[in-house]
Amino acid sequence: MAARFFLPPGAACTLELAAPHILRGRNVVVAAETGSGKTLSYLVPIAHLMLKQRTAMQQHAAALEAAGPAADGAERPRFTRYLALVLCPNVALCQQVAAAVNALRGPAAADGSSQQQQQQQLVSAAVINSSNPPPFETPDVVVATPAGLLNIIDDAGGAYGWLWSEEGMQARIRHVVLDEADLLLTPAYSRATQRILTLFKTADRRRVEAKLFDELGLAGKDEFDRLPRALQVAAWTGGAPAMLAEGYRPKRSLNPDAKYGPYWRRQYIYSAATLPAATYSDVGSAIAKAHPDAVWVSTDLLHSSKPQVEHAWREVRDDDFTTNLLDSIKSDPDYQARSGKTLVFAADGASADAASEVLAGGNVPHVVYHKSRPMGEQAAALATLREQPGCVMVCTDAAARGLDVEDIKHVVQADFAANAIDFIHRIGRTARAGRGGRVTSLYREHNRALVEVLQSYIADGVALEAAFSRARSFSKKLKKTGGVFVPRGMAAGGEEAEAAQANAGEGAGEGQEGAAAGPAAGRGGPGRGAGGGRGAGRGRGRAGREQAAQEEAVRS
Description:
Radius of gyration: 25 Å
Strand content: 5-15%
Number of strands: 13
Number of helices: 21
Helix content: 40-55%
Mean pLDDT: 84
Distance between the termini: 37 Å
Strand order of the largest sheet: 3-4-2-5-6-1-7
Largest sheet: 7 strands, parallel
């Protein structure tokens, strides 16, 4: 089935970089700036594979029908319909991804109807959680939060059919996507994410093992489990050829002309706008170590402020905060013309409610969005933001990731971001898909050190990754270094920098194929220290614990 995909402006670049590798079934890491089309960069090739599968199923059914009834006792060959799973950190992003899938349209039919009616929905998606049980018709793409999916599997999976059990998920999910991967692999989400990834990886290994038993004459699972660990790892990653190359000596004679495989491969895709890989404890390093064969795709503006964003910085005190906040909003020309939308970021729910009171006192119509509000209010606030021209929404960082709303022209930081990663995600809500935008940052004296670093990097057009801080706190980073800013990857005595260089060098060879695929492919991976050499995971204290948690979340 041929199909054309109608894409929004600005989505083509990331799609062109990622699609060839996804279509070949490779594990892929998509690291690109906010608003660059990362979601479509994995959804479009997956949809293409779904359509290709659908055509093959139709041909298979036609062949069976043409062959006539099967002989008594004979089994007809079966064709398994595989699905995709997209994991997201929150329900709002899940709904946005599902809407993007359902909006993919095919070519227009020449029947005289309107274009919107002519374009057929190509694939289907559904958000699954305890409040949204699985639909009767199985979707092509399942979208869920890690905890929401586990609630279905653990509590009610059997009631909705075999597919929604652990065995069904293992058998039918072919593509696994972690959207906002850096957040899903942090301690707040890693327990649920780790369980889901382990569920799939355990099944992946069992499938490969089952084929090996026949190819190499192994007696069964017990004999395989007694093999040295190095041989087991070789088997899981490369099948019989890898085992033989590692030194395995089968008990029976093998046909020298035998062809081994093909082996089951589940595809893993990691997508994020911030994927640091400067040190052994970063999420990017953990992914690279767990998937050394993955292709890394990134854009030149990864971890950077987009050049079309205009920045304004205002240092405020308690006595002039209200005046500056109201002036930042009211003086904006797009607000005055009601031609652009505004996001006002606060530190937490209480701060957002306080900022809302300031705006109400200044006669600024607005809505409020944060997780402490009832779900109905949250949904209503997002709907108003999407539909109402010139809308102002006061929010927390719950709206900083993945939120894709047209015409957000202005981002105001009523409370300055606690770290460079949150700063990147906040300012990424504007100037999306090549458009322009403005950011007004109000900051206090205690924010000044971070502000000065970010101002300098943005003015020089330098990526902000060096200002990233462990545990998501720049202030804690400064305290550890005696109030002196030390770029990420460099620590007292140079130990962390040396480890990062060693990791980068050791992993560089693994990124050659990705680097050869295009000017941006492979850039975000081992070449940036994500190779995760032998030093990875051996950190001391909190760094070591963080690395262990991240690695466990991407491998069993």
